[in-house]
Amino acid sequence: MRKYGVKQTFRRADPDMQIPYLYPMKQITILVPDGQNNLASIIGCYQVLLKANQYWKEKGREVPYQVRLAGISSEVTFYEDVFSVRPHTHIGNIRQTDLIIIPSLDHQYDRTVNNNGPLIQWLAAQYKQGAEIASVCTGAFLLAASGILDGKTCSTHWIVAEQFRQRFPDIDLQPDRLITDESGIYTNGGAYSFLNLLLYLIEKKYDRPTAIYCAKVFQIELDRQSQSPFMIFEGQKMHGDELIQQAQAYIEAHLHEKISVEALSGRFAVGRRHFDRRFIKATGNTPLEYLQRVKIESAKKAFETSRKNINEVMYDVGYADVKAFREVFRKVTGMSPLEYRNKYNKEAVV
């Protein structure tokens, strides 16, 4: 079995005193949790940060951060043992670090949390000591399990937003946002958007020119703020409130009509205020927000797959006012209807 080690540039304390490793510069620690199989975010974070260090070195500047991989096992395998990662060190050897990056996880969140108890406790302890923490995509589940996200904002992949809300109701989940930054905790949206989080962190920890350089080398779009254009709204239906599920089904079956929230609450014999509160508790959206999202999702699909113009799609989803439709569409997707159609439907552009 491979033993943990450190590079020769590190200084080590007297082994008889059993003091953890001492490092001569600021530290960025990329975690390698047990029982997870998303390799790309580990490699990607490591590669981009090393490039940032290289850029500083080539400019004659002292490299500001030592980048290390750490875990609770000496080796973690990925994708049915096709790949493996051997962390530089065990988390127990790290007395203090400046920034911790949690990679994306597989979808067995309960199993992953159960398999990484010591790592989760270590995260909470490091945060109390002043370390900043960044979670990539579904790594937010591991971060949330530490308790340090309670009462704070957070993002994760939009596709698991409903599961996240059910598990962690005390966290202010904002899946539309690509990056959140609060109290030394950073989270980001889904999949390869971790590259945008890396640029954000590099600009904060290094400087803007280094972030621009890395963006150009790896061809990453700078300053993305939202994952809204990539979201597919399927409705939050895991809540178990049968009345709200019936209301959701009614909205989705009548999206071509103009539906008022008052009429909707009256249809189910519930007072408007109580209906709003119940709907928000169940879905995370107000009835109006949910109605808008269902309509805009239908409009998005029409723009992607048909040659219909803006007005035709607008009428199909129950809007009669072009200005109102454009405002709601941009609010939900971050783009205008025309921008969205031109981006996702080449045939319509032709």
Give me a quick take on this structure:
The protein is 44% helix and 12% strand. It is an alpha/beta fold and 350 residues long. Mean pLDDT is 88; it is low at 1-23.
Q: How would you describe this structure to a colleague?
A:
The chain has 350 residues and is of the alpha/beta class. The protein has 15 helices and eleven strands. The strands form three sheets. A seven-stranded mixed β-sheet has the order 5-2-1-6-7-11-10, with helices on both faces. A two-stranded antiparallel ribbon has the order 3-4. Strands 8-9 form a two-stranded parallel sheet. The chain folds into two domains: 15-230, Class I glutamine amidotransferase (GATase) domain (Rossmann fold, 3-Layer(aba) Sandwich); 242-349, Arc Repressor Mutant, subunit A.
